[in-house]
Amino acid sequence: PGMSLTTTLAYALHSVFAGAWTGAVVFTTWRLLPLAADSELTPTVLEQVGSGLSVFARTSAVVMPVTGLWMAWTQYNQLDGLLVPPRGHTVLTMVVLWVAMTGLTEIGASRIRAAADQGKVRTAAVDAGTVLKAASVVGVLLLLLGGYLSGPGL
């Protein structure tokens, strides 16, 4: 028998949110913040970027653990399986990285909004740049680990 509809939906939502959230952070970091550093974005646009990142982070803070717990429960039949290497340890590593990405995204988005509220476009790029670069790296690493877990024989 194949996966249930609920499990399929959990995997699909988890994957879509992971990819969209990481993509939004990476796009902001490597395309929008350089435009802000060159004063080519308005404070209003930057405020919307910061708000959008916060929405992604906060929505993902609900969707990712709910779908992740469902996937772990159905994959391992109980959460004790998370203690078994290599798969369980990889999942636990991903949880830690996910918490880090959530925090980094929130900090970066907050810095963008704070500077944009003061009309300081270049400041937004500088203040949020390092934090969002770190969030981008963590997001890509999470996607790579997710790909690793989807491979056969683990």
Overall description:
The protein has 154 residues and is mostly helical. Helix content is 83%, strand content 0%. The protein is built from four helices and no strands. It has helices spanning 5-37, 43-76, 87-117, 121-150. Helix 2 packs antiparallel against helix 3 and helix 3 runs antiparallel to helix 4. The protein starts with a helix and ends with a helix.
Strands, helices and their partners?
Blueprint: H1 5-37, H2 43-76, H3 87-117, H4 121-150
Keyword list:
mainly alpha, 154 residues, single chain, 4 helices
Structure class: mainly alpha
Strand content: under 5%
Principal-axes geometry comes out as elongated
Q: Largest sheet, described in full?
A: none
How far apart the termini lie comes to 20 Å
- Helical stretch tally: 4
- Helix content estimate: over 70%
Describe, in short, the structure shown.
With 154 residues, the protein is mainly α. It contains four helices and no strands.
